[in-house]
Design goal:
By secondary structure, the protein is an alpha/beta fold. The chain has eight helices and four strands. Helix 4 links the parallel strand 3 and strand 4. Helix 3 crosses helix 4 and helix 6 crosses helix 8. The longest helix has 24 residues. The chain is globular and about 50 Å long. The two termini are 26 Å apart.
Length: 257
Amino acid sequence: MSKWIQENNWQNAEKLIEESKGVAIIPVGSTEQHGYHLPLGTDTYVAITLAEAAAKETKVVLAPPIWFGWSPHHMVLPGTITIRPEVLIEYLYDVIESLTQHGINKYILINGHRIVNIIWMQLAAERAQRKLGIKVKIFDPAYMSKDIVKELGFGPVGHAEEIETSHMLYCYSELVNMEKAEDNPIKPVDLYSVDPSYPNDTLCYVPSTIEVAKEHAEKAGGTTGEPTKASKEKGKIYHEHLVKNLVKIIKDLQQEN
């Protein structure tokens, strides 16, 4: 039986929720440009593949993925869909409130859209915990892989760079076209980085202006970073590390009252 509730009837969904011990995953991503070589749905696919892998090892229930995020800086290229964060907060809260009425009381929100999604997800999660008396964890791959990115030789977090590309090569190779990958190396900026593993003092992140986004679009099709350094092998190590930690979080939540 599929762990995705949308693929089951309501009776099976009821059974899945009971077996999960009240723990559900909600994958959250985006639909936005990812350079010449990756699909628009990359961020959501990342969240989906982690959810599915963890579900194979646990009895967690999977809620339908949220395919949209806050992407104003990527509107420079076709296909990108951006949703206002205030709308996304309400959307995610309503999903959580609905599932809570059916017996879910512990949630893991898998964020595939990096730091841009985190702020509004935190606001929705805080409200849900306060108003519904539940637990919500936010699982973000960039934060959850800080201890292995240097070991894998990954450069700093960018967009459609070797980290995302390696992960997609391992999990969805049929959607990746490495022949079209173009590098756009990230230049260090004093006191600023969007990378959670950056060890030095840094200003907080603000999404790029359209002017900056246009520069990256013209230079490398919207990519920032070096996707040509990606490999399926590195993607496998990265993916398995994330799944190991995700499974631990699920099992810990399932053991709680």
